[in-house]
Design a protein that fits this description.
The protein has helices at about 15-30, 45-55, 125-140, 145-150, 190-195, 245, and strands spanning about 5-10, 35-40, 65-70, 80-85, 90-95, 110, 150, 165, 170-175, 185-190, 200-205, 210, 215, 225-230, 235-240, 255-260. The chain is of the alpha+beta class. It has two domains: about 5-150, Rossmann fold (3-Layer(aba) Sandwich); about 165-260, Bacterial fluorinating enzyme like (Elongation Factor Tu (Ef-tu), domain 3). Strand 1, helix 1 and strand 2 form a beta-alpha-beta unit. The longest helix has 14 residues, at about 125-140.
Length: about 260
């Protein structure tokens, strides 16, 4: 095993939550190497957490364990689960947090019901410390998925709306806004290439219209908006040295339209 354990949570760093999970894991896997992917997922925002994990997980060495805790349903009937997707392991709640993998990859999932691999005392409100962290540490030590739980066939799955394509162009939505205020859409570079074939377009977002897709936001004047393909392979709207979300008054869920010029 790689002994790498990544952490993605909505806990922030003000409180003890992240440190407590690491303390538990070090007691089980003292040679573990931790990577803090993000602890600034907006509170209870499952799909924001899913987006962050989707864009980082497969960059890690084989057998990395990804501990993902965005868990507004902690203590309810939702299952704790562990998955293997390609050569990576994932541990977290079965609440849709792993949804963005399911259209692209096959997975093996296990419901975590073997409390031998939990803390002896389990809080109703902190499964991150008492279930997910110890299981992640045991997986990092080489314990098999079959030992920590039993196979489960279906997981909770959420879907972002699929972009709409017609003879006039494409319509999509803002699915994520990063800390720089860049508006990340559900319109992929491949969809643009296949449907628009680099024809002249107009791009509408909020009350703003852009006339082309550029290489990067640095291709426009400071303070001006730009449409470009971001590192995730999706169309993004950004402001050169500015915050597009604030300056364009656009929130998650806003419509993005790419219209072919006649």
């Amino acid at each position: 095993m790689s002994q790498i354990i990544t952490l993605t949570t909505d806990f922030g760093l003000q409180d003890h939550y992240v440190s407590a999970m690491k303390a538990i894991m070090l007691g089980i896997a003292p040679d573990a190497r931790f990577v803090d992917v993000s602890h600034e997922i907006p509170p209870q925002d499952i799909m924001a957490g899913a987006w962050v994990v989707r864009n980082t997980a497969f960059l890690y060495p084989p057998d990395t364990v990804h501990l993902v805790v965005v868990d507004p349903g902690v203590g309810t009937a939702r299952h704790p689960v562990a998955l293997k997707i390609k050569d990576q392991f994932f541990v977290g709640p079965d609440n849709g947090i792993f949804s963005l993998f399911f259209n692209e990859y096959n997975y093996k999932a296990y419901k975590l019901n073997n409390n031998k691999y939990w803390r002896e005392s389990v809080s109703k409100t902190f499964h991150g410390r008492d279930i997910f962290a110890p299981v992640a540490a045991h997986l990092s030590n080489g314990v098999s998925l079959k030992e920590v739980g039993e196979p489960i066939d279906e997981l909770v799955t959420y879907h972002w709306a699929v972009p709409i394509a017609d003879r006039d162009g494409l319509q999509g939505w803002v699915v994520h806004i990063d800390r720089f205020g860049n508006l990340i859409t559900n319109i992929s570079e491949q969809l643009i290439e296949d449907h628009l074939k680099r024809k002249n377009v107009k791009i509408y977002v909020g009350n703003t219209m852009l006339k082309k897709i550029v290489t990067t936001f640095g291709d426009v004047e400071e303070g001006e908006p730009a449409a470009f393909i971001g590192s995730s392979g999706m169309l993004e709207i950004g402001i050169n040295k500015g915050n597009a979300g604030r300056m364009l008054s656009v929130d998650k869920g806003a419509q993005i339209s790419i219209v072919l010029q006649k």
